[in-house]
Structures are given as structure tokens and as C-alpha cells.
Amino acid sequence: MKGEALFWQQCTQAVTDDGSIDAQRLMDLVIATYRVHESNYDEIERSVETLLRENHVLRGNISALSQAFDGQKKLFEIILNNLPLGLSVFDADQRLTLSNIRFRQLFGLTQEDLTADATIADLTDKMRGRESTKPGRRTGRHSAATARSSSLRRREWLMDDGRIIQSMVTILSDGSNISIHADITEDRRAAERITYLAHHDPLTGLPNRIHFREQVDATLAERKPDEQIALVHLNLDRFKSINNTMGVSAGDKILQQVAERVRASAGSENTLARLGSDEFAILQTGKQQPWNVTALAEQIRRELSEPFFHGEKQVELSVSMGIAIAPEDGEETDILLKNAGVALSHAKADGRKRERFFASEMEAQMQLRHALEADLKAAVENEEFELHYQPLYDLSQRRICGFEALIRWNHPVRGRVPPMDFIPLAEEVGLIVDIGRWVLRRACNDAAQWPEGIKVAVNVSAIQFSSSDLTRDVGEALVAAALSPSRLELEITESVLMENLSEVLPILHALKERGIRISMDDFGTGYSSLSYLSSFPFDKIKIDKSFVNDIVHNKEAHAIMHAIILLGDALGMRVTVEGVETAEQLALLECEECDEIQGYHISPPRPVCDVPHLLSLPPKNGGVTRLPKAKH
């Protein structure tokens, strides 16, 4: 119809004025119209071709995008299902819309449980565990109303197999939520372990100092007006020597045994803690004091007096204790702990192996003691010491055969400080090793200037055996002074052997093999002197001056002296008698054929500069022919 209308339009245009049709005009119009339409057809064909090409490209792009989408979908699923964390998404109606494999594994769910319409409530009922209800943690199911009140919540689940699952829930504005779920079992156990270690001693399992302070704080806060609270501070005497001689591992084993014995003595009603390496503390409440804490201290001492064993090795320990009682000795933790520590220091200063109750005057004494300790450390650094020498007199040769080195401290302010005031302190604070090493070197240097036949005797502390390499120290002192080992004599007391006989004996044998002479000092004052004489071939025994005082006028004292001299002779050991102060004592000892004497009758200790003068003095005359032997 469109073409016919166009033809009639062309015919109208070809009509002349007289009403006839101009055939040529009509033909021209038709041809022109054809040419126009022919051009349009070409354009249409070209457009169609273009559209076909573009459609082909578009289909290729769509196919590529589809493939890429499939790849992204697979990648998303791989990532989703290989996440180390569980992931879940719930819509505003709390229905599951998305989850991964880890989510199912964490909560023990099956694939069938995770249907498209599964709700949080449905899944909670099917979980192999329950939600934790620890105080301070939000619990329960989330509703849309509560969801809008918070954007982030934490939930924890305790599973039937012991695992702990933590869920971090992000709640969106429309009430839907996205949750990340993690197994925090190991992290929680590690945190609990850290918390435990922060409050307990890992070696013994006892509360540590921090926990003990918390317990004391709480106990003092809850103390009734008529209630007394006792705090006992315990310290094992000379325990460091066990670590030094037997090793730290052996020391730890013994500490565990100590903890068990003290735990049994303290009982469950009292609080026991380990404050440090060899320090413990007990808090005793609800008891009549000081009677019950005294009984507790005695019980602990009895328990710890029994030998300890590490393999076949037997170790004996003693304990010192300081006791403070609230409210008399303090109503605050710091004060009570300090006062118990002050009482403990006094117990150790008084000879160890005992307990002391805090008294107000102790604090002033401790301040003086701390000042003395500071001065003693400075004295070691500044070498404020000097040696005095007391002669050893050979009765058969009637001459001085050697000298005992005795330390003196010349304090710039205090003046001359007696050895009895600073030697025990030096042993307690560990300075005796440095002091003993200095004495060895100085004594050897001094002796090297004396005549060849004059020896020097040096006292050695038990701590020097356990806390230093005594053999090396002695060797270095001899080499530095170019002194013959045969001119050095080391004096030890029974306490050295009591500390740890099995460890001390090899050191003594090594020293003796080098030609150094070994003497037992203060013989007869201990409990086991005779047994120790059989354990080591001493070169000499020195009889304590307490046996000398009455030998002239007391037959029993004379008889004891006679027996000891005979014992030394029978064992092939020289005998030196200390504390000889009169000619009568000297004469009697000459009659008993004693080997050596030492005492003020010969000479008091003198500075090294006086040694040449002492060596030049004439022999002492004891009047042997005028004093008969005592009858036995």
C-alpha cells in the first residue's frame, strides 16, 4: 500500500496544465524514486551486516563473561570452603543464606542440617555443644529487635569434645548478620596457662609471690577485730651450695621435695607459697597466736631435718624462719612481709636453723646491718683489709714454724671492725668468696718473703668450696707468689665437711696431691669430728682453745687433751693446740709431747711488718723439767 500511494503521488506530480500526464516526467520521477530506494537498501544491508557482526561479538563477550563468572564462582567457593574460619550469613528472618564447610565442621553439623530455610534456632538445637554462659558474655538467640541495638557481638560455644568456638557476629542495619567462627581452644588454654604461670611457681605448683600478696591482701581485709594472722617467711640455709655442687636440676628436685613436706606440714587450711629460689611463705589464719604458729614452725623444722635424696645421694637441709603477726606487727601486706623478712634475717644472723618473731627493735638493727653490708661491699672493692699473723710454735724445735693469717678490716669511719662482726655477714651475702680469694693471694705473697722453712696457714670457708673453684684460686695464688705448695696450709672446720662431704672430699684430695697441707680447725667442738678424721687423711688437727683453759688445774680437761694428742699421733697427724696463754700451759703441753702451740703466750696476731722481729725472738722456755706429767 505504501508503494501504490507513492506511485499515485508521482502520477499527480507528472500531470500537465492541460490535465494530461507527462510520460517523460513520470518516468523521471519513478527512476529517481528507484535510485533513492536502491541506496537505502544498500545502507540497510550494510547496517544488517554491522548488526550481525556486533551481535557475534556480543555473543562472544557474553560467553566469555559467563565463563569468567563461572570461574569467579568456583574461586569464591574454593576460598569460602578453604577458609580456616567458619563463615555464616543469616537474613533478617534469621534464616541461613550462606555458609562454608568450616562452619559445618566447627559445630558438628551435617550438610543436610544446612537447608535453605534453616534458622539459627534450628542449627543451635543440632549443634554438638552448648553456648557458654560465663559471666559478662552476651548469650541467647538474636532477634531483629535486639540486633539493631548493637553492630558487633561475641558468642562462645563449649562443644561436647571440649573445644571452645568463638563467634564474632556483625549485625547489619536490616537485621541480617554475618558471623566469623573460630576454634580458640588452644588460644584459651595458652591464655589460661599464662594466667596460671603469672600466679603460680612452675616448679612446685605453689602460689608465687604475686598470688601470695593477693591472698594476704584479701585475708587482712577480711580479718575480724579479735583475729590474729601469722605470716611465716622461710629460707633454706645455704641451699645455693647444693645447686653449685650437685647442679641446678638436682636442686630443683630437692626443692620439689621440700615443697611437698612443707605443704603437708602447713595443711590445706593455710596458704603456702614459693617466693623465690629457696624462699617460701605461709599465711596462717584463724588460730591463737603465737602458740599455733610456733607449733607449725617446729613441725616444719622436724620435717625438713629428715634427709633428702637425689638418686643415691643424701642431702641434709636446715631452715630459718621469720614470723610476723597481724595486727601487732602490721596491718598492711607490705609491712607484714617486710617485718617477717626482718625477723628471718635475724634468725639467719643468729646462726640459722631457728625461727625468730619480729620485734620492733629488729628494724633498727637491720638498718645498721644493711649499712654494714654496704660498707663491706665497698671494702672489698677498695681493699680495706689487711692480714695479721699469729705464730705457730713448734715445741720440739722450740721455734716459730709458721703463721696463721688472720684478716682485719680497717674501716675509714668505724675503725677496726672485728672479724666476728663481718665474716658471718660476708658468708651470708656471698662476699666471702672474693674476700677469701684476696686473703689467699696476700698470704702467699707475704709468705714468699719469709725464710724457706716458714709456712703460712689460711682459713677456708665452706662457701669457698661450693661457690668458687677453690683449687684454681689456690693454684693461681701460689703461682703468682712463686710459693711452694708445701708452705701453704689450709684450715677447714667441721662445717665444711657437713655441707656436702661427697663434693668436698675430691677437692681436698686434689689440693693434698699438689702438696698443700690440710688441717681440721676447732677440733672437738662439733658432733662428728672423729668420724671426719677417718674420712680424710688430715695433716694436722687443731685443738680448740676451749680445751686448754683448765688443763693445768683440771684433771679431766688434762685427760681429754692427753687423749686427743695420742689420737693425733696414732693417726699420723700433727696436733696444734690453740689458745695457749700461760707458761704453765706451755710446759704441760711440752710434757705431753704436743707438736705445736698457738696463743698469746707466744704472741698475739701482729702485722706483717712484725714477722721478721717475731722470727728473731729467743725460744720460749716452758720449764719442762719442773712440771711432771699428770697422772691418768
Automatic annotation (TrEMBL):
PAS domain sequence ranges: 72-123
Residues in coiled coil: none
Pfam families hit by this protein: EAL (PF00563), GGDEF (PF00990), PAS_7 (PF12860)
Segments for region (Disordered): 128-149
Span of domain GGDEF: 227-360
Cross-referenced PROSITE patterns: EAL, GGDEF, PAS
InterPro entries tied to this protein: Biofilm_reg_signaling, EAL_dom, EAL_sf, GGDEF_dom, Nucleotide_cyclase, PAS, PAS-like_dom_sf, Rev_trsase/Diguanyl_cyclase
Boundaries of every EAL domain copy: 369-619
Listed name of the protein: Diguanylate cyclase
Source organism (scientific name): Rhizobium leguminosarum
Lineage: Bacteria, Pseudomonadati, Pseudomonadota, Alphaproteobacteria, Hyphomicrobiales
